[in-house]
């Protein structure tokens, strides 16, 4: 199985840039496709798709969210961070499935 | 508007069974693969099972193989998860999700239904 590793938490100030990383135990890229996706989950709510295939913004997601990366290293960037962005962020790979695997989540906190 | 509404959760004793349902609306259900993803209390997300758009292919995580069955009724736009021989480690919120190209990412999620396995 492909294991995805995320830092448990990140503290950021409002208006600043937040960079959340996800590292895969093996490459999740096939030719030009980077099969890494990002979700946001606020307390008591279901997850919501933010970014698909590493860098594509999902429908209705603000442009302050962006994604990048390839191979084994991926990044979700929020710039600037707003109060509504305080949540837990998960990466997920679909390069090798089943199983589809998720990272452990990064909790974005206010500094 | 895409909507996924789960039902059927609750408290169940270890070793017993429970069936979850997910009513879909706002899209052509028979065109999409679907999946169940769960989240134990205070834990992260864990994929459970996936079914192809026509039900011909199903996939399960190892820990539920032989105990859980995912199925669908395209005429009723409903997804199911039959859970047998439940264990305490199956305690979680179960989310119904829509799969893009069945085997890629999950673009819509239901609000979730809680399953508690305890005596």
**Could you give the count of β-strands of chain B?**
11
Topology of chain B as a string of helices (H) and strands (E) = EEEEEEEEEEE
Shape of chain B: globular
Report the major sheet of chain A. 7 strands, mixed
Total number of beta strands of chain A:
13
Distance between the termini of chain A: 35 Å
Q: Summarize the helix and strand pattern of chain A as letters.
A: EEEEEEEEEEEEE
In DSSP terms (H or I, runs of 4 or more residues), the helix count of chain B works out at 0
Which regions of chain B are unreliable across 5 or more consecutive residues at pLDDT < 50?
Answer: none
Strand and helix map with partners:
The complex is a heterodimer of chains A (111) and B (119).
Chain A: E1 4-5, E2 9-12, E3 18-24, E4 29-30, E5 33-34, E6 36-41, E7 48-52, E8 56-57, E9 65-70, E10 73-78, E11 88-93, E12 101-102, E13 106-110
Parallel strand pairs in A: 2-13
Antiparallel strand pairs in A: 1-3, 3-10, 4-5, 6-7, 6-11, 7-8, 9-10, 11-12, 11-13
Chain B: E1 3-7, E2 10-12, E3 18-25, E4 33-39, E5 45-51, E6 58-60, E7 68-73, E8 78-83, E9 92-99, E10 106-109, E11 113-117
Parallel strand pairs in B: 2-11
Antiparallel strand pairs in B: 1-3, 3-8, 4-5, 4-9, 5-6, 7-8, 9-10, 9-11
How would you characterize this protein structure?
The complex is a heterodimer of chains A (111) and B (119). Chain A is mostly beta strands. Chain A has no helices and 13 strands. In chain A, the strands form three sheets. In chain A, strands 2, 6, 7, 8, 11, 12 and 13 form a seven-stranded mixed sheet that branches. Chain A is globular and about 35 Å long. With 119 residues, chain B is mostly beta strands. Chain B is 0% helix and 52% strand. Chain B has strands at residues 3-7, 10-12, 18-25, 33-39, 45-51, 58-60, 68-73, 78-83, 92-99, 106-109, 113-117. In chain B, a hairpin with a 6-residue loop joins strand 5 (45-51) and strand 6. Chain A binds chain B through residues 35, 37, 39, 41, 45-49, 52-53, 58, 90, 92, 94, 97-105, and chain B through 35, 37, 44-47, 50, 59-62, 95, 100, 103-112.
